[in-house]
Amino acid sequence: MAAQISNNKPFIKYSQMKRDAFVMWSGGKDCSLALHNFLKEASGTVSYLVHVAGSCSQGHKLPLHLLKAQSQAMGVPLIIRHINSSHEGFEPHLKSVIRSLKKEGVNAGIFGDIHLQEHRDWIERVCKEVEVEAIFPLWGRRMRDLMDEFVDSGFRARVVAVKDERAPLHCLLGREVDQEFVRDIEAMEGVDLCGENGEYHTFVYDSPLYDKSIDF
Fold first, then answer.
1. Residue 193 sits in which domain range?
2. Tell me, what's the pLDDT at 166?
3. How many Cα neighbours within 13 Å face the side chain of 179?
4. In the list 41, 57, 165, 212, which could disulfide-bond 5, CB 3.0-4.6 Å?
5. Contact assessment for residue 195 and residue 162, using Cβ atoms and an 8 Å cutoff
6. Looking at the structure, do residues 149 and 118 belong to the same domain, yes or no?
7. Hey, how many other C-beta atoms are within 10 angstroms of the C-beta on 170?
8. pLDDT tens for residues 43-83?
9. Distance between CA atoms of residues 30 and 12, nearest Å
10. Helical pair 90-102 and 117-129, crossing angle rounded to 10 deg
11. Would residue 6 count as lying in a domain?
12. How many domains does the chain have?
């Protein structure tokens, strides 16, 4: 997967390098749209999807075979690093994976963050410590524009998890992410339109990046 782009992102010292990137992968809409934007706008290739979790996708609670199906549909290898106990931290596992990828020439990571500065700061610190570039294709963009782009570009996704303490969100479970869904989310007071605070999580079962849709 390659595209011709120019992209001014953090860590400018990397900007003249040919980007061979991994994508931090959850199976949901934000990482999918971030990958899509990178391929449209950046000069480089995407060599791997990276997922660090237990037996299921972290917040999304997706069976890992569904992530593998996405990987196969895109023709991009998926690396899954298991955290085997609650005492093991996420960060050491992520750094270990990135260091292994660096030996293969991977020098950048793509992340689907939109506006949570604290999380971006953490990602940038981790990437700086292992000397790879952190790329945020969706960062700072208007959330309605992102949702419109996701739907209009041909992505298809369903809601697979919601925050349990937000009872009104339960009605979203199983919903298709379409324009009606976007309007309903906008009408919910205190709910982030893109679910950036974990209000809801999605599984992308069809995409302009897939060679076929995923049955699930």
1. 143-206
2. 65
3. 6
4. 41
5. no
6. no
7. 10
8. 689 999 999 875 444 556 788 899 999 999 999 999 998 87
9. 24
10. 50
11. no
12. 2
> At 177, phi and psi to the nearest 5?
-85, 95
Q: Residue 74's pLDDT is what? A: 96
When pLDDT is cut at 50, 70 and 90, the band that residue 88 belongs to is low
Residues 81, 170, single domain; the answer is no
Q: Is the domain of 64 the same as that of 153?
A: no
| Whether 122 and 52 share a structural domain | yes
31/36 Cα distance (integer angstroms): 9
Query: 26 and 122 share a domain?
Result: yes
Does the structure show a pLDDT above 50 at 12? Answer: no
Do 169 and 107 share a structural domain?
Answer: no
Q: Which of 107, 135, 163 is the last residue of a domain?
A: 135
User: What count of residues does the chain have?
Assistant: 216
Handedness of CA 172, 178, 180, 184 (dihedral sign): positive
Cα dihedral sign for 141, 142, 147, 148? negative
- The CA–CA distances, whole Å, from 87 to 28, 34, 61, 84, 92 equal 26, 31, 20, 8, 12
57 and 120 both lie in a single domain: yes
